[in-house]
Amino acid sequence: YYFPCQRWLAVEEDDGQIVRELVPVDEAFVKKDTENGGQSLATLGLEQKAKSTTYTVKVKTGDKKNAGTDANVFITLYGSKDDTGIVRLKASKINKNKFERGKVDEFTVESVDIGDLKKIKIGHDNTGNSTGWFLEWVEIDAPSLGQCLKFPCGRWLDKSEDDGAIERIIFPAELQTIEYIP
């Protein structure tokens, strides 16, 4: 089995991810570029794309006093076929300082095909100075599936607020799901 990567594992490069899920590809794609006239890397990229899904994950921190968090936030996407495993939300595409009061952060999550999205688990590791976090909602857009789902939360993820939980399982709000042509 061959699991090529051809991507950065660095917070300050590419999409900021330091973990990658790799899909196995046919041995022919791994043969030297010269044998295939330099075409194999481009074809390899398409082959890998066909087996994986890219999700845009938007996370809205509530507009309440002390709503933001400095803790490390993670998410797991659960589908009808599989789940993504734990994905750390490291590099927001919008804000340098992520998960601040009233702000929306955007992340890219790549994974093998997990099927139709059923639920998510989101939480944090409770480290840093201000750890408590008020999560308003999570929105997950999967262009290859033609679906954008909203996961409403409106609760604290804080050991000293609400029920004391620092991770939550959230289901999508069916009325807020947007279907479009993939």
Automatic annotation (TrEMBL):
InterPro entries documented for this protein: Inner_ear_hair_cell_LOXHD, PLAT/LH2_dom, PLAT/LH2_dom_sf
Domain of life: Eukaryota
Membrane-crossing segments per the record: none
SUPFAM superfamilies: Lipase/lipooxygenase domain (PLAT/LH2 domain)
Annotated PLAT domain residues: 1-23, 53-171
Family annotation (SMART domains): LH2 (SM00308)
Pfam family, one: PLAT
Annotated protein name in UniProt: LOXH1 protein
Organism: Eubucco bourcierii
Gene: Loxhd1_4
